[in-house]
């Protein structure tokens, strides 16, 4: 069996670290950044940021202690502290040590131990900050390595906490984490999320929050795969799944280009080609992509691009965001600002130039659009533009 036959599709599933394609150069850069500071890792959904941080955790260099956790389901400050404490306890237990200070305080506050895991009562909520700082102190005290907390979906957790406990609660989380980074020189944090921290911070600033809690962190965007790596991934998967083609190189390139070199979608297409049954080519790839874009069941979850505007954008911002995206979706070439704004005015009577400029910046931060070197704007991903055009027609 050749090495290529070991590559199989796993659309939406967890990809083993050794099957994460084309990210070695980026990961090397991220480790270099983490030598000096913490990191905010941004990316559009399905770009593979979780695969990247899990690969980093699995292949961490000597002298690095990676601690990974998905925070999507965390909805309170106490839940966050409990999660961090449990992770710290698990890592310290490998060295036959315990988080002494935190354990003592947790038990004093009415914590209960079940199967070696301490659960905190709701009455401990006012003490969350002390518990968090002591937890981190316990870990730092027992480690000679650089400790790196990889916190996936951090912005979503902050959004959940803001909704449940108020803006001030989310502010305190951010400020406390920043103070811990300043207090412990060998502590690093990596925040990841498809909707960036800027959405949460914009909401907090409207409530009077003036701090810059991540200005000590480097912001790095995860791009799609290069065309060469995306084509290679498609080739490996075609070979691994035993799919017959009339021209494997051309079919692999068609797959890569049709989905903007995004690995998640490449897995999906090759999985569908496996079920196709016959000899496949670029035309079959095109048909599959078109069927996914039109499918009312939305198996690629593309409806998220529309729905998240209602979730994360203020009510008065939504018409402006939607109309700007509509204008860009229904044009066949990038638009300079003046032309874009003129077209916007034909759709939105009360459009204001400066608000439009601010919204274009926000839409760039959220990966909807990009500004080219000639200053013209366009959708960042042609695939998302096609979906938007189909479903906003």
Strand order within the widest sheet?
2-5-6-1-7
Classified by CATH, the class of the largest domain is Alpha Beta
CATH architecture of the largest domain: 3-Layer(aba) Sandwich
From the helix content, strand content and strand pairing, which structural class follows? alpha/beta
Query: What percentage of the residues does DSSP assign to strands (E)?
Result: 5-15%
Radius of gyration: 23 Å
Secondary structure: number of strands? 9
| Quaternary structure of the protein | single chain
- Outline: globular
Number of domains: 3
Q: Report, as a whole number of angstroms, the end-to-end distance.
A: 49 Å
Task: Tell me what you see in this structure.
The protein contains 17 helices and nine strands. It has 393 residues and is an alpha/beta fold. The protein has three domains: 21-221, P-loop containing nucleotide triphosphate hydrolases (Rossmann fold), CATH 3.40.50; 225-294; 304-391, Arc Repressor Mutant, subunit A (Orthogonal Bundle). The strands form three sheets. It has a five-stranded parallel sheet with strand order 2-5-6-1-7, with helices on both faces. A hairpin with a 5-residue loop joins strand 8 (369-371) and strand 9. Helix 3 (77-93) packs parallel to helix 5 (128-141) and helix 9 (227-240) packs parallel to helix 11. It is globular, with a radius of gyration of 23 Å. 38% of the residues are buried.
């Amino acid at each position: 069996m050749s090495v290529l036959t070991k590559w199989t599709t796993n659309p939406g599933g967890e990809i083993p670290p050794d099957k994460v394609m084309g990210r070695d150069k980026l990961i090397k850069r991220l480790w270099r950044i983490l030598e000096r500071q913490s990191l905010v890792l941004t990316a559009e959904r399905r770009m593979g940021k979780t695969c990247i941080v899990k690969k980093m955790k699995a292949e961490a260099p000597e002298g690095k202690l990676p601690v990974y956790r998905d925070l999507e389901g965390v909805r309170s400050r106490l839940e966050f502290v409990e999660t961090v404490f449990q992770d710290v306890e698990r890592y310290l237990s490998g060295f036959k040590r315990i988080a002494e200070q935190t354990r003592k305080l947790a038990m004093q506050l009415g914590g209960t131990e079940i199967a070696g895991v301490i659960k905190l009562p709701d009455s401990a909520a006012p003490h969350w900050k002390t518990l968090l700082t002591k937890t981190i102190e316990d870990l730092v005290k027992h480690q000679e390595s650089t400790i790196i907390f990889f916190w996936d979906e951090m912005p979503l957790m902050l959004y959940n906490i803001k909704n449940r406990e108020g803006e001030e609660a989310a502010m305190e989380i951010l400020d406390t984490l920043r103070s811990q980074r300043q207090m412990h020189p060998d502590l690093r944090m990596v925040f990841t999320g498809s909707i960036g921290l800027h959405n949460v911070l914009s909401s907090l600033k409207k409530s009077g929050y003036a701090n810059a809690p991540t200005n000590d962190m480097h912001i790095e965007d995860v791009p799609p795969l290069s065309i060469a790596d995306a084509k290679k991934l498609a080739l490996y998967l075609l070979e691994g799944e035993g799919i017959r083609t009339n021209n494997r190189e051309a079919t692999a390139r068609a797959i890569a280009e049709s989905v903007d070199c995004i690995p998640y979608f490449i897995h999906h297409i090759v999985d569908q080609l496996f079920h196709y049954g016959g000899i496949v080519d670029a035309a079959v790839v095109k048909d599959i992509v078109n069927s996914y874009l039109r499918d009312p069941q939305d198996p690629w979850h593309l409806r998220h691009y529309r729905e998240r505007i209602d979730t994360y954008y203020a009510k008065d911002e939504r018409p402006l965001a939607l109309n700007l995206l509509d204008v860009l979706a229904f044009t066949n070439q990038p638009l300079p600002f003046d032309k874009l704004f003129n077209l916007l005015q034909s759709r939105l009577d009360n459009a204001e130039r400066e608000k439009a400029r601010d919204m274009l910046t926000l839409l760039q931060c959220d990966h909807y659009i990009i500004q080219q070197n000639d200053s013209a704007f366009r959708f960042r991903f042609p695939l998302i533009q096609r979906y938007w055009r189909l479903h906003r027609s």
